[in-house]
Automatic annotation (TrEMBL):
NCBIfam families, sorted: PRK07231.1 (NF005559)
Family label: Belongs to the short-chain dehydrogenases/reductases (SDR) family.
InterPro entries reported in the protein's UniProt record: NAD(P)-bd_dom_sf, SDR_fam
Cellular component aspect of the GO annotation: cytosol
Superkingdom field: Eukaryota
GO aspect biological process, one term: abscisic acid biosynthetic process
Name of protein: Zerumbone synthase
Length: 283
């Protein structure tokens, strides 16, 4: 790192200094990126995930102070006792809970014919993507309401605002996350608690890459994913990565967004706001 870069890095403000955050699904993918970025900005973080080994590895990788400033808790977001226990563990270890990030989610099986839909799979998707996030909101609110402040951020998807971006159950679940965000924001606003969600375009994670069209898994998976997604994207020259989604979550979690609530922040380079059929007329 150059001297100029070092000065810039050391002088950059830590936007979550003194705050406590809990991130579900924080052991990998976007959740891990959020955990790492939050730590860079001074937050004490509780990682809640069903991936015990991965969660412990992330905790251990965050430096010598990880034992005091980072906590890992096993948490299945479909089990209310697990969610309640994770929230209580964060609050008890760090003294409070300022930020709740409901990140844990799944896409479910790809189904191209609704007649073959498996409702057991649909229930599984909703249990994690909707009920799990609602439980996160419920138990975060339980701790935040007495302090009259807090920020709850949930991960949705561009599938929350349009069809054709994922399986039916996934699309319905992400629409539901936006509805929950608006409804819970209405209730918790009187307690000074903000509730928002972030809807990213396709990001190269283990969650999304299995849903590439058949035949696109050749060579390096991430490279091929970015090439395919980039070809469909509106904004060229930029690849959407987990760290970019984490930056959007950081903003909504921070005091810089202190008067923003009930927002679905779409991080898609304009993908959902333009008509791709008109691109031919631009050439």
């Amino acid at each position: 790192m150059s001297a100029a870069a070092a000065v810039s890095s050391s002088s950059s403000p830590r936007r979550l200094e003194g705050k406590v955050a809990l991130v579900t699904g924080g052991a990998s993918g976007i959740g891990e990126a959020i955990v790492r970025l939050f730590r860079q900005h001074g937050a004490k973080v509780c990682i809640a995930d069903v991936q015990d080994e991965a969660g412990q590895q992330v905790r251990d990788s965050l430096g010598d102070d990880a034992g005091t400033d980072v906590l890992f808790v096993h948490c299945d977001v479909t089990v209310e006792e697990d969610v309640s226990r994770a929230v209580d563990a964060a609050a008890e270890k760090f003294g409070t809970l300022d930020i709740m990030v409901n990140n844990a989610g799944i896409t479910g099986d790809k189904v191209t014919d609704i007649r073959n839909l498996d409702f057991a799979e649909v229930r599984k998707v909703f249990d994690i993507n909707v009920h799990g996030m609602l439980l996160g909101m419920k138990h975060a609110a339980r701790v935040m309401i007495p302090g009259k402040k807090g920020s709850i951020v949930s991960l949705a998807s561009v599938a929350s605002v349009m069809g054709g971006m994922g399986p039916h159950a996934y699309t319905a679940s992400k629409h539901a996350v936006v509805g929950l965000t608006k409804s819970v924001a209405l209730e918790l606003g009187k307690h000074g608690i903000r509730v928002n969600c972030v809807s990213p375009y396709a990001v190269p994670t283990a969650l999304s890459m299995p849903h590439l069209p058949q035949g696109e898994h050749k060579g390096d998976a991430v490279r091929d994913f970015l090439a395919f997604v980039g070809g469909e994207a509106n904004l060229k020259g930029v690849d959407l990565l987990p760290k970019d989604v984490a930056q959007a979550v950081l903003y909504l979690a921070s005091d810089e967004a202190r008067y923003i609530s009930a927002l679905n922040l779409v991080v898609d380079g304009g993908f959902t706001s333009v008509n791709p059929n008109l691109k031919a007329f631009e050439d």
